[in-house]
Design a protein that fits this description.
Length: 234
Amino acid sequence: MVTYEPGPSLAHEFDPRAKLAFQTGFAVAAFGRGTLPGLAAVTLVALAALAAARLSPLRALVAFRFPLLLLALSPVFAAVRLGPPWLDFGAAVDPALASYRVVPVLLVSAAYVRTTPVRESRAALQRVVPGKAGRVLGAGTAIAVRFFPVLLADLRRTREAMAVRLGDERALGERLRVTALAGVTRAFDRADRLSLALRARCFAWNPTLPALRFRRRDAALCVIAVLLALSPLI
């Protein structure tokens, strides 16, 4: 899983608000481009974002392997027919292009997560979205980003414990039931402990957030974001 890692890359130097604007503009460009040349162009931009973050494309793809598997199933289901001809590859072209649009967006998101601390993301969201809505969005995002890797680690330990006890020899349905039950139980336990920890630390809706600096390079990135958002109209 891709998480924040300190480093000297170019993407680390940008203000999180500029990076959020770039993600938004890039998503608009990716979903607005349905042709092969357009998708090739947004793919190159996504690879450039990964290079700026010094993140391997293979590592990013592995981190999103499960969503990518679901996206790959869409054109397969579209091509399958219940009678002759059993496969219609022409029917899979449009679903394949539609599914692929998500891939560059995921790569750019991985570059953002790799180069942006959670506290800075929260600060950016609360300053972009005013009022209580921004505070709720910022706090919820910060907690979710920190909580999700912990839940994945719990599931991984559950599977390892089952393998040690020869649980991998059970039926698939039984393994899924045990893993899901253990995962849900641990998730509720961790949620209870998180709630207690927040109360013990006098959790505030408006804590002291890190200072953000919007510089010329951030303005240039915002201009690129606007151009990306307008590119489908050109």
